[in-house]
UniProtKB/TrEMBL annotation:
Pfam families, per the entry: BTB
InterPro entries in alphabetical order: BTB/POZ_dom, SKP1/BTB/POZ_sf
Residue stretches of biased makeup (Polar residues): 122-134
Domain BTB: 164-221
Segment forming the signal sequence: none
Classification lineage: Eukaryota, Metazoa, Ecdysozoa, Nematoda, Chromadorea
Chain segments carrying region Disordered: 117-147
Annotated protein name in UniProt: BTB domain-containing protein
PROSITE patterns listed in its UniProt record: BTB (PS50097)
């Protein structure tokens, strides 16, 4: 009985790898003691959204010779790189023409996170041992029930790939279409990429993400 209990507890632990990419364009735009703010969503766990700041500092002080300091807010008190609480690290790219790609390992007990870190819609899609007993327990629509005609029209346009102007290439080789205006509205990182690009459509190679994860992220937007 003890062994069975321990196995059940172990199954609740989640370890997710995330590659945080900060483009050189954003780094070059920072002046000393200025910062920018952005966020990232943990792949597969749309309910876990982390806000982070990147601040440009002088090359002396607490962080040694680092030119930038990354601060990740941790409202869920998960483990980031083996430590709970907010995460701080000094960053120094080899040169400002290089992007920063920071691998992060995030560990958490799914039972301690609301809905296990998944959105309500995700949880319903993945299935539950309980059947809905009332109208309130039914899975939500992809388009919220209170959506206006304008919102429904926007969703229709976003899912029409006839004039797609950006493509993601997933790690499993699938080509996934999307639209620059929508991506740029939700992410300054994408906006910076699009500003640098001269070819249309733009191709983004997403080596760290399978097609299912990319589809999920685009549907969330």
């Amino acid at each position: 009985m003890v062994e069975k209990k321990e196995m059940n507890e172990m199954k609740q632990m989640c370890a997710v790898k995330y590659q945080l990419r900060i483009t050189s364009v954003r780094l070059q735009s920072l002046k000393c003691n200025h910062s920018f703010k952005d966020e990232f969503v943990l792949p597969g766990y749309d309910g876990l959204i982390f806000t982070y700041n990147v601040n440009k500092i002088e090359t002396t002080g607490q962080y040694g010779k680092s030119d930038f300091v990354l601060h990740i807010q941790n409202p869920y008190d998960v483990e980031i790189q083996g430590k709970k609480g907010d995460f701080n690290i000094g960053l120094r790219p080899l040169c400002l023409a290089n992007d920063i790609n920071l691998p992060l390992l995030i560990n958490f007990n799914a039972e301690e996170i609301p809905n296990g870190g998944k959105t309500k819609h995700q949880s319903n899609v993945l299935g539950s041992s309980q059947q809905p007993s009332s109208e309130e327990n039914r899975p939500e629509s992809v388009i919220p029930s209170h959506s206006s005609k304008a919102t429904k029209l926007l969703h229709k346009l976003a899912t029409n790939h006839r004039y797609a102007d950006v493509y993601f290439i997933s790690s499993d080789g699938e080509k996934i279409p999307s639209h620059r205006n929508i991506l740029a509205a939700f992410s300054n990182i994408f906006a910076a990429i699009f500003d640098e690009s001269t070819e249309i459509p733009i191709q983004i190679t997403a080596n760290n993400f399978v097609a299912e994860t990319i589809h999920s992220a685009l549907n969330f937007l």
